[in-house]
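User: Last request for today: this protein with (R)-mevalonate, please.
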Amino acid sequence: MLIVSAPAKIILCGEHAVVYGFPAIAMPVFGLRARATVRPLDRVDFRIRLLDTGETLVLTDTDHPFISLVHRATRAVDRPVPTGIEIDVSSDIPIASGLGSGAAVASALVKSLFQHYRLESDLTRINALVYEAEQAFHGTPSGIDNTVIVYESPVYFVKGRDIEPISLKGKYHFVIANTGIPASTKETVAKVRVLYEQAPKVTGETFENIHSLVDQSRKALTVGDNEWLGSLLTQNHEQLQKLSVSTKQLDLLVAVALQAGAYGAKLSGGGGGGNMIALVSQDKIESVKSALLRSGAKRVYTTILE
Ligand code: MEV
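Assistant: Here's the final one, the structure of the complex with (R)-mevalonate:
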């Protein structure tokens, strides 16, 4: 039996602008993971069992993104689709919540196939395959989600460029709160595209403002300044409000986190529902979590960047 897993992700800053070639910073959430477990099957067959939904996929389900990913991945490494195995897929990551559940499952699936074939874990190649799966899910993704999830490390990402590692100083504690409202990244990305077409100047300025906040955030991370980073994240939320991807519930949770003493807070990911994040000092984690739950957050998680 072979078990391979991949983490969830959060976007620290720069979402949406990143689709247009501006930088963004993302980090893995190691405590929330998707898993692919490869087991021998007593038949000459191949199947994927999606344990969370009870679905079973077979090779002829080529319309399903995971089966089409298996076909593409095996073609890319010049191997036949394996027979006599089943891959059980499960995930702790809430779906349609901006935490990268689709990319994490795709990453675990491709990595499990590479390991099954005892191939070198070529992350560039795996990332390209997971990116194609993301395109099937989301239309025109920037590639940031698959990159942070496949590499499992914080990234300063610019579409089409080599990823830049971030040199971090200090520790950063985040509370992540799920609004419980399903969010379609495809829809919010399309919404921002319409806005950009209708108001290119103002929207372009918003992207530039976000760009500046992302670059300052990278600096804050390299000097270990939680207060500065927090203020930049809150400013990023204000810019995302201008792009109309925030919602009343996200705005409320951001305000509640700030009131409860967070250094800063913002929506994270596509918006329109999904998740927000709050940067907090260690001693504020519990009070910020309780305040968010009292204000309607459906689930809260914590993660550390160090
Ligand atoms: C989603 O996690 C981030 C977005 O910028 C979309 C993308 O980059 O593909 C909203």
